[in-house]
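Deliverable D4.2, example record:
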Amino acid sequence: MPVASSPLLEGLQQKLHELEARHLSRQRRTVSTPHAPRMTVDGRVVVAFCSNDYLGLAADPRVIEALQQGAAIYGAGSGASHLISGHSAAHAALEYKLADFLSPWVRSARALYFSTGYMANLALISALAGKDAEIFSEALNHASLIDGARLARAKLSVYPHRDLQALDEQLAQSEAQDKLVITDAVFSMDGDIAPLRELLALCERHGAWLLVDDAHGFGVLGHNGCGVLEHLSLRSSHLIYMGTLGKAAGVAGAFVAAHATVIEWLIQRARAYIYTTASPPAVAHALLTSIDIIGSEEGRQRRAHLKDLIARLRERLQLKHWQLLPSDTAIQPVIIADNAATIATGQALMAQGFWVGAIRPPTVPAGTARLRMTLSAAHTIEQVDQLAAALVSIEANNR
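Output generated by the structure prediction step:
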């Protein structure tokens, strides 16, 4: 029997129609194979260039075996929050390994594992920024940083993208007792890297914390995969580092690495950590294998191959009308601008067997709709060449 209509449902339906009319509605696709460059999506095989599996570890047999082993040892779930009875030996081992891995770059390092990166940022910002604090947020920050700042009771100031002078002036004028600068390391929709050396110098001069969200750099940047800290040789007690484990590490979750005092404060006061069920221990157990691979010679070889793929795509992607943004990272965006044209281009690529994300507002500013191509060490040179040729051909046929 059909559900009776109501003014509430009609109001929501009208808003959905408005999204469709502006070419802003989103669509889920169903994947029925392991996450790898070649995937079966909605029943057809495509080459995916929209995943954040930067090192190709999501379907690595060793990581899969470790996940299975973890489930055999610890069971399917954790059963409780970390501060009740959900903190397993696997969680403890992962936190110790992460702290040791990042110890050259984080002073008196200690790590804290979270179920998601979104949760980690909410926990961090709300725990560190009380009513007497001021948060300084980069204009192009990820939604989790933006929402974390909104959740906190602190004053919020936004500084323009990569604008060090504006941030310097804001910090100098601030009368807040505690100051917290928050920024992505690699900006997820543009692929560029924040000027972190200069940001850190500002924070040290003004007595501010610097929270760096390295979701798209951990495992990818740096000789050993220690992320943007290693890539830029950053060390400071002012630094708080957040990295995710569902991208380059290939599994799930996130972590915060900072001075042991910061981590203890989070354990005591971060509501998003305290009041949630811990991630399944098997996930943490699998991540022990991922971290070993990231820091190994094999991990270095994968990063070198990924770097070659990035250079290859940029060399082959000679566009005349659309704009390939400057990026040396695995995130390679092409600005098309128009929402409908961006969707149509994504559909045309899919018809040729390439799955590329079509990103539109509000994820990116109005008028900057884009294709967001992401490369993985699991891709081949041939796949990258084929993608570039397809996109160049589509652009030529649409002009």
